[in-house]
Amino acid sequence: MKMKQDPKIWLMTTMLAILGILVLVIAFFVLKPVFRRFSLDFYYPVLKLVHSTEKVIVEKALLAKEKQTLAEAVTLLQEQNDRLAAENVTLRAVREENRQLREMQRLQAPAGYGLVYSEILTRDPATWQESFVIDHGADSGICAGDLVISQNFSENEDVWEMVVVGRIAETSSHTATVETLYSGKCSLGGYLQENMVYGMLSGMTRHGVKQLLITHLSPEKRYKAGEPVLTSSHSRNFPGGILIGRIAANSDGSPAVRLDHHGLSAEGVVEPAINISSLRFVTVLTEKK
Q1: Which of 189, 186, 211, 192 is nearest to 200 (CA)?
Q2: Is residue 151 helix, strand or coil?
Q3: pTM
Q4: How far is residue 49 CA from its own chain's centroid?
Q5: Which residues pair with 187 in a beta bridge?
Q6: Using the 8-state DSSP alphabet, how is residue 155 labeled?
Q7: C-alpha 75, offset from chain centre
Q8: DSSP-assigned states of every residue in 170-205
Q9: Going residue by residue through the chain (289 aa), what tens digit of pLDDT does each one get?
Q10: What is the pairing mode between strands 176-180 and 187-192?
Q11: CA distance 28 to 232
């Protein structure tokens, strides 16, 4: 025999079920932010670690890329700087060459002599200051013994003056070998105008240093540092009065002149009037036949 269900109980059960569902729905929406915040706080260390690692990786990748880009930029700038530096050196060399050529044009040949303008072709590093080869020879009228000169500016007299470089040692048709004042193969007569004394000039090496000496000077004269030494007028191949150099000075300012080892004459060190090491062009003084 089935028991009849009370309609009131059924209705109440239904209403309680609906009410429970409503409470659960309301609780879900109310508590959802709370649980969300709790879960974020709970997982924060893990999320922070992942984010930091990712950030470090990205920053390193960007930094590596920036370093590569910067290295490429630096390399490009270095190449440009090297090219500009090379161009600058070339321009300076051309400017110096033009200056020396202009100075050569200032030279005026003494009466009875001609000028042959020449460029230095080759130099031996072992004898850089002693000799070199020029680009003119016998076909241009150059002979062995001819005087090789250059041009120098005299600050004391504010004029350009002719100065001695050396002498022609030998010639070919188109070239000639020059022995400079520092060479032992170059000898010429010198004249000290202030003391009216003649001497012989030749190059030599003392203690590994190239020097130009004037020998056979009178031991009775009083010489002074800076005294000009000129070419002798008694020479056959070139005129007198061309500046060779000046008497050098010792460390105390006294003239670098002393008695020779025989004690019968004096000898002195002469400072050439031109820097032979830096010459690019010279002029040969040829005697007109």
Answers
A1: 189
A2: strand
A3: 0.64
A4: 57
A5: 202
A6: T
A7: 22
A8: EE-SS-EEEEETTSTT-EEEEEETTTTEEEEEEEEE
A9: 445 556 777 778 888 888 878 877 777 777 777 666 666 666 667 666 766 777 777 677 667 766 777 777 777 878 888 887 877 777 776 676 666 666 666 677 788 889 999 999 999 988 899 999 999 999 999 999 999 999 886 656 566 788 999 999 999 999 999 999 999 899 899 999 888 999 999 998 877 888 999 999 999 899 999 999 999 988 777 888 999 999 999 999 999 999 887 778 999 999 999 999 988 889 999 987 6
A10: unpaired
A11: 124
182: number of Cβ within 10 Å: 22
H or E element that contains 62: helix 7-104
Contacts of 180 (CB under 8 A, 6+ apart): 129, 130, 131, 132, 148, 165, 166, 186, 203, 276
Q: What is the DSSP letter of 135?
A: S
Element (H, E) at 268: strand 266-272
Query: Would you state the structure tokens that stand for residue 241, as one six-digit string?
Result: 């009065």
Q: Using CA atoms, how far apart are residues 90 and 81, in angstroms rounded to an integer?
A: 14
Q: How far apart are CA 78 and CA 97, in angstroms?
A: 28
Element (H, E) at 105: none
Q: Six-digit token pair at 223? A: 């010489």
Q: Which of 202, 168, 204, 178 is nearest to 188 (CA)?
A: 202
